[in-house]
């Protein structure tokens, strides 16, 4: 993933709604740095350690605050971006700088990756370092997002949320990457609000998967409502195809 293919659909409508809108690439690491074989492909980001990416997010947020004069930002995040942003609020001083954290298909509680990641974790726990071998191919961040990883355990060690942040957490039943998809949902702790939303509730024709949910008109309307419930109260319901996406059409 990268900033373009994550936000090519949502970015402009959010800007058109009147928001100062920014995005950035993070987590770029090469083979030597442990980015995995995928890191040799053009445009592949988010392969380095998620903790390091959270520090990059912190630097970027500070730039945005300086450029806009705002006191807080709202974050719209996808997949690893959600758990990375959550780490930022918990361990990198982000709680005081984030008002809304809106996530889609986020790996807040890790993923079984259709059972592959969970099986690898079981084998590792039995004393065979199979995940260390797999990490050569998928990179540091890929292994960190499996169920039961040290990263996931620490991320949620003191509860799912932090005070002062409003969370909107969206999952899709057809997510082939973050699954079971309800692992993305959060439980509100003191001083936080959480709205957990299944994309298909009230709109069965939206069959977006992990990637195409970022091209879903319904997902976009959920983000806009979270940013401004009064100004954008209505949710869109249209067909959005699995795998190919298309912003509501083939």
Describe this protein's structure.
The protein has 250 residues and is α/β, with parallel strands linked by helices. The protein is 34% helix and 10% strand. The protein has eight helices and four strands; from the N terminus they run αααβαβαααββα. Strands 1-2-3-4 form a four-stranded parallel beta sheet, with helices on both faces. Helix 3 (50-68) crosses helix 4 (80-91). The protein is globular, with a radius of gyration of 17 Å. 42% of the residues are buried. The model has no long low-confidence stretch (mean pLDDT 88).
Write the layout of secondary structure elements.
Elements: H1 3-7, H2 11-16, H3 50-68, E1 73-78, H4 80-91, E2 98-104, H5 116-125, H6 130-144, H7 150-155, E3 166-171, E4 193-198, H8 217-227
Helix pairs in contact: 3-4
Proportion in helices: 25-40%
The strand order across the widest sheet is: 1-2-3-4
Largest sheet: 4 strands, parallel
- Which range does the strand content fall in? 5-15%
Summarize the structure.
By secondary structure, this protein is α/β, with parallel strands linked by helices. It is built from eight helices and four strands, in the order αααβαβαααββα.
Key structural traits:
about 250 residues, 8 helices, alpha/beta, 4-stranded parallel beta sheet, single chain
């Amino acid at each position: 993933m990268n900033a373009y293919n994550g936000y090519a659909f949502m970015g402009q409508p959010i800007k058109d709604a009147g928001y100062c809108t920014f995005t950035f690439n993070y987590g770029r690491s090469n083979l030597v740095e442990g980015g995995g074989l995928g890191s040799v492909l053009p445009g592949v980001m988010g392969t380095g350690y998620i903790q390091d990416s959270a520090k990059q997010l912190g630097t970027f947020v500070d730039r945005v605050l300086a450029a806009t004069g705002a006191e807080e930002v709202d974050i719209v995040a996808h997949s690893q971006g959600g758990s990375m942003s959550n780490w930022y609020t918990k361990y990198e001083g982000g709680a005081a700088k984030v008002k809304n954290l809106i996530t889609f298909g986020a790996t807040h509680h890790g993923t079984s990756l259709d059972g592959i990641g969970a099986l690898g974790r079981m084998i590792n726990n039995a004393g065979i370092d199979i995940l260390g071998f797999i990490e050569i191919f998928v990179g540091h961040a890929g292994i960190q997002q499996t169920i039961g990883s040290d990263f996931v355990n620490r991320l949620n060690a003191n509860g799912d949320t932090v005070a002062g942040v409003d969370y909107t957490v969206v999952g899709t039943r057809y997510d082939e990457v973050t699954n079971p998809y309800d692992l993305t949902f959060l439980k509100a702790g003191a001083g936080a609000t959480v709205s957990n939303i299944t994309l298909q509730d009230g709109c069965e024709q939206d069959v977006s998967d992990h990637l195409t949910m970022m091209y879903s008109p319904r997902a976009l309307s959920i983000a806009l409502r979270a940013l401004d419930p009064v100004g954008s109260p209505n949710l869109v319901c249209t067909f959005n195809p699995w795998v190919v996406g298309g912003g509501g059409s083939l």
